[in-house]
Structure formats: structure tokens, C-alpha cells
Amino acid sequence: MIEQPNAAKALAPAEFWQTPKDVLYHALGSGPDGLSQAEADRRLAIFGANRADASQSRSVLRKLGQRLWNPLIAMLLAAALVSGVSGDVGSFAIIATVLSLSLTLDIIQEHRAELTAEALRDSVAIQADAVRDGKDVAIPVTALVPGDVVKLRIGDLIPADGIVLEAQELQVNEALMTGEPFPALKTDAPCPAALPAEATNALFAGTSTVGGSGKMLVVRTGGQTRFGAIAAALAANAPPTALEQGVRKLGLLILRLTLFLTLFVLMARLFAQRPAMESFLFAVALAVGLTPELLPMVMTVTLARGALRMADRKVIVKRLSAIHDLGAMDTLCVDKTGTLTEAKITLEAHVDPKGRSSDRVLSLAYLNSAFQAGVRSPLDEAILSARSDGIDGWVRLSEVPFDFERRCLSVLVARNGAQMLIAKGAPESILVRCDAVDIDGLAHPLDDALQQKMGEIQDRYARDGFRLLAVAVKSISPGQQTIAVGDEADLTMIGFCVFADPPKQDAASAINALTSLGVTIKILSGDHGAVVSHVARSVGLQTDRIMTGAEISEFTDAALVAKVDDIDLFARIDPDQKRRIIAALRHRDHVVGFMGDGVNDAPAIHAAHVGISVTGATEVARAAADMILLAPDLSVLAAGVREGRRTFANILKYVRMGTSSNFGNMLSMALASIVLPFLPLLPLQILLNNLIYDCSEIGIPFDEVDREDVARPEAWNMANILRFTIVMGMVSSLFDVVTFAVLLKLFEADAALFQTGWFVESISTQILVIFVIRSRWRPWRANRPHIILIATSLGALIGGVGLALGPWGGLFGFTAPSAAMLATILAIAASYLISAEIAKRLAVSNP
Known about the structure:
Elements: H1 7-11, H2 21-28, H3 37-47, H4 60-68, H5 71-85, H6 89-123, E1 127-132, E2 135-140, E3 149-152, E4 161-173, H7 175-178, E5 184-186, E6 202-203, E7 208-220, H8 226-236, H9 242-271, H10 276-290, H11 295-312, E8 315-317, H12 322-328, E9 331-334, E10 346-351, H13 359-371, H14 378-385, E11 395-400, E12 408-415, E13 418-425, H15 427-431, E14 434-439, E15 442-445, H16 448-463, E16 466-476, E17 491-500, H17 507-516, E18 520-524, H18 529-538, E19 546-548, H19 549-554, H20 557-563, E20 569-571, H21 575-587, E21 592-595, H22 602-607, E22 610-614, H23 619-624, E23 627-629, H24 634-675, H25 683-696, H26 718-746, H27 751-768, H28 770-773, H29 787-805, H30 819-843
Parallel strand pairs: 9-18, 9-21, 14-17, 18-20, 19-20, 21-22, 22-23
Antiparallel strand pairs: 1-2, 1-3, 3-7, 4-5, 4-6, 4-7, 8-23, 10-17, 11-12, 12-13, 13-16, 14-15, 16-17
């Protein structure tokens, strides 16, 4: 009996593939019929979910620790520590409140986002065909435990580490583990190999079946698998996402501004022989004032809200930061079948090498499709549905399953003592293996004239959007019971099967919607170039710039980078070439999305900034994707792009508002602190101002955005953010100087009255300018602000002004101003808002 999670690892040696099946059965308490449901449930409670990241779920303390390492948060902590040690209890309390509010909301929102993402993942959970209580049942992969028996088909993701129990030409792509792009043939024979890469009977989580079928015995799950260990190492050293890179650049920008202003103020005041401790605390307060404490919380709320809104639009987000990448996407690469076409394939014709209808072509294609062991493709289903008779006494002996290198599949069949190899696949892949052509029952050498004739047949059908499969045969001596790749030579060409897959009715409008959003569409397909061009024309895409896989194979990576922008269609390409195209586009600084659903699409999905798949995709494609569409069409994706851009626009809105407002106010205070005989604001008042302003912006994630913000791709641009910060900050500082002059010259204010007057002016202009700069348009032409933003902003304004002018103002060093002073401050604030409306045209240009 297994009592604890390491028991399976202890009972199954590191090289478990060297252990005989019966010994593993005994060690794992299993057998050919798998486990009972009750025993599986018990083991699931012991081992936990079969998920590579299961051990990476972070506790609240780990989440908190990660945030405390943020340079901006660390700066706030230092400020709080200094304030507490120096006896400034009020400043300490304000900083602690700001930090606690930001960190608490951030952690709560992240936790909610994790729960939401988990629920969304469960809704599209990858399934496995396990044997429970002697019966085949479909269960989530996460529910597998050591001892389970699992059936495998082509396109399945290997769900755990284990050994092969049965294999019918089972081929597995192990590139994830070995780096070898060619499929590995797996058998159930014992293997003495010491290295996993050489274990012909071992299967490892994260790899995928690309041919044949079989059964496996699960030996290790979750973090105990080789993939689990790799995933944990990668997670610990994962490169930052595009969103994280943008935030890091922003942090460095703020840090530079903070160091410049605080050191400038501190050194200037010390040079002027002002009190050292007062100068130090004021400099610390400036540093706090420049820090957008709520940025992590605003980002998390915005992204989580964006994920929920995208779920409403039938887009499930597996990685929250992918929302940013989707909004910034300027190039979308799509597979043709199922994305632009209906993926409802019908057999339209079956013709011989002269283009005449031929029942023999259909009969041989039928045998090939009926006898293959793996999952049948839509082409196979179309062939099988075209005939109602049986297999007429033929029996299957062997098979060479399909793979994406050969692009063909062969079966060995026998009847009445005669044996025949039947091959079916892409025309160019079959023809290169032929040396003869069958015409009216006679074999003719495959000469140039016949090659040209068959090329003309292909081109004629392809121009009309039809897809072709070639069929060829070869006699095999009765003594040979199996076939291999080497037998696929000296074939005799029999003819072609002709298939139709019409474009979707809404594909053209969906393409137009995406291109109107500034997204360039490129088709990456394994089909014939003429077929790809036909589909592209029918949906309104460019068709005059096309490149084939044969041409790509001649290019180095550098040469492909130079060419990739000029090509719209890629035809007859293999999975690795799709990946190379994505990598080339990324090298050209494009933000690239890839949408696909097949096993051959997984490398490209993984390589793209935004990997997109659909619920009906193969498991390996869904596992590699960042987003999953609940409807396999581009119109759904266009809605997701708009939502991604709306989400990112609100993040940028907070960044622009926070940095420009903070910079302007802190610059004013820095300069005033040097020329005034007293501090323009006490450190406690600075921190109070910052806290109230941050609270006013909590409603930003819910706000509407300009139509221009979703009309084109957007990404982090530090130059634009810096320009906005400087322009709007300088305007704010200019009116602060006017306020200083009015308070000192007109009202002859002392320190307390000056600080009260400027606090009211500062908090009023900071908060009210949100309604000016939230949009590039004039306030009366822009989208109406969300009611939550109105409530948080006006609520914070009323609270801040009331605190300064109310009975508790004395606790913060405020005093009651005259009505005339308040009226003057109101006039200055109104003038500032008008000037800010004019200045924002320099800060943000209209399209």
C-alpha cells in the first residue's frame, strides 16, 4: 500500500523503464485493468493533482515576500523604517497604511485571479482515456495517479511518466526532452538503456504522440515527472513577460526621477544649513510621493477584470499577462484549416493520373484509411463516408504511421495470399517515392511527360481551392509481415483523391475586422500553394507574395528574417518551419500571435508572444496555448484583441496620471522647500496627499477608453510616458508656483495657512485633472467616465478637502483658511484644468 507521495518513486527506480512490467505492476499495486476508482481517489489525495506546476502554488507569505523585493516597495519600507526610528509616528502610520492597502488589495486580487484562472482551466481541462474498474473512462489529466493505465492516440499529450504496455506503430515527439525533432518509435519490449532518451519503452510527460496508438502504465505524476522538474526549474528562472518588462522599465524611470529630486532637495537644504532631520524626512516623503504604490494593485485588478470580460467574449485566458501581448499584437499568423475554412471536408472526386474518375483510387484510399491505427483525420473520414461497402476480405498486417516529415501513411494489407503496400499522402511526398504510373491497369515509367501531366492536374484543382491526396501501391512478397519507412520506395502511382474545404462564411468579415485593428494576417499552412492562395483570395487577403517550405529550407535564419515581412502566405511548410517564421517575425520586433489547433501547430503556438488555440484542438496544442477560444473563428479573436487593448489602455492611463501628477507636485515641493523659510508641506501632509490621490484612482480599471486606444496595437513606450510626465508635470508645477505667490504675497500666509491652502489646491487639481487627461479628446467629446471612477475620485476629493478644512485638520497641521482664499484657490484650480486640457495636446497627439 502506498502511504506517502515519495513511495512510488522509491518503489519504481530512477530507470523504471528497465524494470519488467510485472514487477512495476506489483510495485504500483496495479495491473492491465488499471486501478479501481476508489483506489485512484485515495492516491489522488496522497499524490495531489497531476500538474507540473502543482508544487509552485504560492502561499500568502511567498506572495508577500515577492512583492517586498520590488525596488519601489523596498523604498517605501525604508521610508517607513526611517520615519519610525526618528519618532515621526504620523508619517510611519501613513506609509504603513499605503503599503498595507496596496499589498493587501494586490494579493487579494491575485488570489481571486488565480481562482478564476483555475476555474477557466478546469473548463477546458485536457482529458485522458484511463482504465478504471476495468472500463475505459475519460478523466481530466490532473486526476491521473501512479498505477493508472492510459490509452494513447495520435495528437495526445503524454500525461505522465511511464512505460509502454501496448504499441501499434506508436511514434512520440520527444523534442521537449531530447531536442531531437524526429519522432521516436516506441515499443513495449523491455529496454536496458541507461539514458531516458534511449529508452524505447519509456514515455515522458509533456511529449506528444504523432503517430500510431498504444497504452501506457503511469509510474510518476506531477512534480515527480521529468517534465515537472524541468517546469519547476524554468518557472524559477522564467524570463519576464512583455508586461513585466514594461513595468520594470517604468520602475527604473521612476527610480531615476526619485533619486534625482530627493538627492537634489536633500543636498540643497543641507547646503542652505536647514535642519538635517527635517530635510531628511522631507526628502523621504518626496520619495514616497513619487512612488505609484497602487500600480501592482491596479494592474492586477485591470488584468483580472480583462480576463473575465474576455471570457464573456468566449476567450479563456490562461496567462493574465498575455492580455497585454494580445493588445500589443500587430501580426497574427493562422493555420488555414478550421480557422479560415469550415474544416468540414468532403470528397469531391477521385481521379487517375490522366484526370479521369477512378473507383480503384477510392477503393485503395478506403483500405488505407480503414486500416490505419491512429486517429483518423477529416480527410480519412471523408474517404470512409464516400463508400458503404466493406473491406472485401482484406486484412491489415502492418503500418508505417503518418508523421510531418514524410507527410504520408502506409499500410500493409493481404488477401488470398497476395500482399500490398498502400501509401497515401501529400502528392509531392508520394510522387518522389514513385517510379511508375498506373494507366488503365498497366504500369508506365514515371517520365517527365507524366510528371508534367500530374502536375497540371494538381494545379488545376488547387487553383479552385481543392486539396489533393495521392495514392500509390507496391507489391510485397508474402514472407514479409511488417513494413518500414524504407519500403516506401519504388511505388506505382494510382491517382488522386480530391477534397473541398470551403471558406467560412464570416471569415472575410473577421479578417477585415482584424486588419482594421492594425493586425497583419499571415497564413502558415501545410497545403499546396495554390490552395492557400485560393482561400486567401476568398477572404480578402493578399495572394501575390507566397513562399513555400522548400524555399524556406534553403534560407538561413538571418535570410528568413530579412524576407519574412514581405511574405503574406507560407505553403507546404512543416512544424519547425512554422516555428522559424514566428521567431523571424519576433526578431523584426513584431508582437506575434499564432492561432492553430493541430499537433503540428504546437511549436509555433509556443514560440509566439500569444499562443492561441481552440477547445476542439489537439491536447498538445491546447497545452501550449496562452489563450483558448471557445469558438474557432477569428471574429471571436477580434473581440479579444479589442478587450486586450482596452485593458492595457487603462493600465497606461493610471501610469500617465500617477507619474505626471506625482512628478509635478513633488517638483514643486522640491523647489519650494529650497526658497521658502518653511516646508511647503509637512512630510505627514505629503503622505496624506499621496494616499488620498491613490484612492481616487482605484476606479481606473473600470473606466472606458478612447476608440483610438483599441484601433491600433499599443505597447510600452517609455519615451511617450516620459514626455507626458514632463509636459503635464511642468504645467502642474507652473500653477503650483502661482499658488505659492498668491498665498505668500496676497494673503501673507504663515506656514500652517500656506500648507493648508496648497494642500487643498494640490489635492483638488490632482484629482479633478483625471477627468481631463483620461482621454485624448475634450471631456465633453470623450466617453463618459465609469460611475466607479466618478465615485472614487469625487469621494476622495470630498474626503481630502473635508479632512483639511474640518475639525480634524489640526491633527495634520492644517488651519482654517478664509473664504476669499478658498475662492482664489478654486479659480486657480479651474485655470489649471483649462491649461491642462490645452497642454495634453502636446503630451498625447491625436491620430
